[in-house]
């Protein structure tokens, strides 16, 4: 039986493909006076308000005009235990990890602290319009349990995993190859595919895992091919050099993961900045996914992500905040900084492609475009309501905006959590309507 229906009215924008330019209207549908019919956590219909209103005579109508209704944002790389690390004065990656991140993550051995931080973490995601994220938990099983339990309480489609790390970290942050394997198996059994939860096998990065642990991670991937895999790759020159010392037999950084059978189409590789030609060949062959993290790459001075170069090889790039080296939970601000990173390389990020990237594009990278990332009938009702006039500066600029692309670029450049008028997760509002 279908429960009470809701009809959300607004300017509806949904992508069906990646736009190839400003004139590629075949890649998206924009309905100026549109509506979404929602019930039981699903989108039942999308169309003009005039067409859907007669079909939904008993539905509660929520009028969001003139705001834009879009699929909820998807963040493909961030760190749950770093909610109190964000905005820690930065240096380079390895020093930043040792000075700030690792000490903070030791606190997540405590179940109460993990649960408290999970509440804050999910509040921050939804207040910024993010409805799905792929997160690293700490090494502690309690951290992953708090993360997935809070996601289930809110009925959010979330992906995550306990990190595997058995060296080059403080004692309170180390597991062993066997305990990491056993804990991960238990977490997969408890959370993967349960409700909207999905698991990511998570060797943090090559520096913090011994060959024995990498072998165990490879065994987990082989035993659970439907799980995601997430790690870091080639973020920083010192990181790359240290990895080469630890794995002298590897042809390059990516080969550490490749040699243990971790590269699959479900693998997400955070950063992937300083890549060698062989590594790019391997990414193209295996269909593993690099993840562009612009705000953290700028914050730590790590380097510039070559989006166009990788795309030219047929590689699917995801994009993410990378909280807490990343400096904003906002996927809008992530697009803002991503635009600038690409500008420095004479690459362009048109606003239509930008908004495709943080919705359907990231869903494609996750293989979930049939469930999230669009507003098509039969998909999950994760929806964000965007106010292009949320601030004085935006209101003034909007007075001179004449096209959808111009409006989206205002959101992309000036928008943040103030532009999120409402976020719906499985059809339920996450904060009071503005």
Commentary on this structure:
The protein contains 15 helices and 16 strands. Helix 4 runs parallel beside helix 5, helix 13 packs across helix 15 (404-414) and helix 14 packs antiparallel against helix 15. The two termini are 31 Å apart. The protein is globular, with a radius of gyration of 21 Å. The longest helix has 17 residues, at 111-127. Strands 5, 6, 7, 8, 9, 10, 11, 12 and 13 form a 9-stranded parallel sheet that branches. The protein has 434 residues and is of the alpha/beta class.
What is this entry, summarized?
This protein has 434 residues and is an alpha/beta fold.
By DSSP (H or I, 4+ residues per run), the number of helices equals 15
Uncertain segments:
none
Radius of gyration: 21 Å
- Measure the end-to-end span: 31 Å
Cofactor: Zn(2+)
Keywords: Hydrolase, Metal-binding, Plasmid, Zinc
Protein name: Guanine deaminase
Pathway: Purine metabolism; guanine degradation; xanthine from guanine: step 1/1
Keywords:
22% strand, 37% helix, alpha/beta, 9-stranded parallel beta sheet, 7-stranded mixed beta sheet
Q: Strands, helices and their partners?
A:
Layout: E1 6-15, E2 28-39, E3 42-48, H1 49-52, E4 60-71, E5 73-79, H2 93-105, H3 111-127, E6 130-136, H4 141-154, E7 158-161, E8 163-164, H5 177-191, E9 197-203, H6 211-223, E10 228-233, H7 237-246, H8 253-259, E11 267-271, H9 277-286, E12 289-292, H10 294-299, H11 307-311, E13 318-319, H12 331-343, H13 351-366, E14 383-386, H14 392-398, H15 404-414, E15 420-425, E16 428-429
Parallel strand pairs: 1-4, 5-6, 6-7, 7-9, 8-9, 9-10, 10-11, 11-12, 12-13
Antiparallel strand pairs: 1-2, 2-3, 4-14, 14-15, 15-16
């Amino acid at each position: 039986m279908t429960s009470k229906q809701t009809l959300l009215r607004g300017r509806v924008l949904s992508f069906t493909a990646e736009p190839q330019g400003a004139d590629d209207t075949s890649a998206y549908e924009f309905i100026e006076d549109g509506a979404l019919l929602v019930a039981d956590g699903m989108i039942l219909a999308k169309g003009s308000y005039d067409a859907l209103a007669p079909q939904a005579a008993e539905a509660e109508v929520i009028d969001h005009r003139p705001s834009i209704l879009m699929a909820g944002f998807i963040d493909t790389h961030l760190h749950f235990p770093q909610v109190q690390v964000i905005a820690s004065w930065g240096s380079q990656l390895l020093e930043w990890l040792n000075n700030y991140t690792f000490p903070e993550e030791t606190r997540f051995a405590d179940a109460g602290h993990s649960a408290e931080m999970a509440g804050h973490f999910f509040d921050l995601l939804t207040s910024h319009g993010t409805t799905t994220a792929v997160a690293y938990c700490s090494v502690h099983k309690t951290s992953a349990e708090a993360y997935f339990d809070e996601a289930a309480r809110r009925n959010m489609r979330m992906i995550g995993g306990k990190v595997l790390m058995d060296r080059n970290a403080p004692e309170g942050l180390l597991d062993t190859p066997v305990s990491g394997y056993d804990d991960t198996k238990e977490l997969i059994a408890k959370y993967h595919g349960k409700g909207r939860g999905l698991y990511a096998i998570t060797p943090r990065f090559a520096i913090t895992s011994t060959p024995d642990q990498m072998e165990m991670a490879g065994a987990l991937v082989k035993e659970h091919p439907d799980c995601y895999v997430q790690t870091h790759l080639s973020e920083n020159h010192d990181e790359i050099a240290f990895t080469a010392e630890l794995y002298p037999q590897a042809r390059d950084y990516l080969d550490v993961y490749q040699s243990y059978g971790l590269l699959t189409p479900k693998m997400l590789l955070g950063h992937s900045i300083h890549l060698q030609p062989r590594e790019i060949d391997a990414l193209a062959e295996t269909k593993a996914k690099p993840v562009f993290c612009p705000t953290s790459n700028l914050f730590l001075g790590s380097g510039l992500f070559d989006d166009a170069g990788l795309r030219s090889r047929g590689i699917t790039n995801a994009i993410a905040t990378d909280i807490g080296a990343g400096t904003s939970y906002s996927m809008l601000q992530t697009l803002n900084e991503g635009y600038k990173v690409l500008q420095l390389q004479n690459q362009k990020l048109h606003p239509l492609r930008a908004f495709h990237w943080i919705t359907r594009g990231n869903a494609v990278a996750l293989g979930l475009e049939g469930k999230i990332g669009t507003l098509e009938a039969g998909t999950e009702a994760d929806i964000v309501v965007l106010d292009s006039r949320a601030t004085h500066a935006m209101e003034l600029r909007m007075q001179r905006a004449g096209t959808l692309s111009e409006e989206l670029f205002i959101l992309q450049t000036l928008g943040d959590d103030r532009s999120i008028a409402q976020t719906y997760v499985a059809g339920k509002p996450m904060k009071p309507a503005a």
